[in-house]
Amino acid sequence: MIEDTQLSAGDLEATTKVAPLADNPLVVQPDRSLLLHTVSTLTDGEGGLLRDDSGRPLTEPHPRFEEARSRLSSFAELIKSPDYLHTYKLTAVSIWNAVSLGMDFGSIEATLRDLVCVPIPEVVLTTVGVWVERFGLLELHRVEDRFGLTCGDGKVLEQLLQIASITKLCDVDEAGRIWVDDLTRGPIKQALLRQGYPVRDLGGYVDGDPLPLGFRETTLEGVAFGLREYQRRAADAFHADGGVNGGNGVIVLPCGAGKTVTAMAAMEKVGAKTLILTTNTVAVRQWRAELLDKTHLREDQVGEYTGLGKQVAPVTISTYQMLTHRRSKASEFENLEIFRQENWGLVIYDEVHLLPAPVFRITAELQARRRLGLTATLIREDGKEDEVFCLIGPKRFEMPWKQLENDGFIASAQCVELRVPLHPSLEGDYASSTVRNRMRVAAENTGKTPVIEALVRRHAGQRILIIGQYIDQLESLQRHLGVPLITGKTPTLKREELYSEFRSGEQPVLIVSKVGNFAVDLPDATVAIQISGSFGSRQEEAQRLGRILRPKSDGACATFYSVVSENTREQEFAEKRQLFLAEQGYAYRIQRSMDMDDIGGCAS
Question: Which pLDDT band, with edges at 50, 70 and 90, does 518 fall under?
Answer without folding.
Answer: low
